[in-house]
Amino acid sequence: MSDDYDVNVDVDGDGHWDHNTTESDGHGGHNIYVDMNHDGRADFVGHDADSDGLIDSATYDANYDGHFEAQTVDTNGDGWQDQTVYDYDGDGKPDEGTADTNYDGQTDVEAADTNNDGEADIFRADLDFDGDFDWAGRDDSDANPYASR
């Protein structure tokens, strides 16, 4: 740990704190690094902008391939990551986005670009917040030459 900064993170959600290293970002915040597969490279990089012990944003390499495919942000300051954007193919464009709009820890809204054209094609929402998606939509306009735009 650096600068007497101490933070607990549970990257994989197993209920146990994961070993981490930290460094000051030079602007009053800290970066938090976790090597989940013990290969010597960080698979999670968290950012605590004000050193209050809560992760404000993070990047994940969930499949340990060296590419950080998920970026998250805490939108209400409670330390839980409420929005996530995924770039699965590494082209710099979002492939999927999710949000926890009522801050209960479950994804309520999801949009995905399934044909890699840079626009969302599939939409899902849990409108009554019961944990089940009860609304879904699909934009097939790219696949159907006769669809109006």
Automatic annotation (TrEMBL):
This is Uncharacterized protein. GO terms for molecular function: calcium ion binding. Residues 73-118 are annotated as: Disordered. It comes from Virgisporangium aliadipatigenens.
